[in-house]
Amino acid sequence: MKKNNLSPMGRQGGASALTMMVMVLFFGGLLTLVLKLGPAYLDDITIQEALESLDGTKGLSTMGPAQVRTLINKRLSVNNVRGFEAKNISVEKDGELVVINVDYEVRNNLFSNVDTVIHFQHEYEMKGQ
To answer: Are 56 and 127 in contact (CB under 8 A)?
Structure first.
């Protein structure tokens, strides 16, 4: 009995070597981006949580900007956030309200002379007790 080689099942050979190489490069590049950019986003989430936890802090509205920055830095060091500078935090007071602005960039070297820049900006209005 002779097989029919022209049927669709007989012509399927799977992915070619070129297709497999393109897929490996694509998913390898995607994995590299996740590994390089992921920690910056996780640190930003921690920074947001530290700032949000200041809302309702006793005496926040009577503290000076330097004291508020020190309080934020203590919370960030407890949460193991490194590479964040206090100069990126600006504290303004409007009566009972304390307005905290955080504006910073994170730069990572991807490979050779290719870098990534992620810009984060947050603003919080809080009331102390």
So the answer is: yes
pTM for the model: 0.75
pLDDT in tens, 38-64: 999 999 999 999 888 888 788 887 888
* Pair of tokens at residue 118: 């992620």
The owner of tokens 């990572």 is 108
Write out the residue range of the structural domain in which residue 32 sits. Answer: 17-127
Q: Is there a domain that residue 70 lies in?
A: yes
Burial profile 17-32: b = 16 or more Cβ within 10 angstroms, e = fewer: eeeeeeeeeeeeeeee
Whether 7 maps to a domain, the answer reads: no
Q: Are 52 and 125 in contact (CB under 8 A)?
A: no
Domain tally, the chain: 1
Q: Burial of 34 by CB count in 10 Å (0-12 exposed, 13-18 middle, 19+ buried)?
A: exposed
H or E segment at 108?
strand 97-111
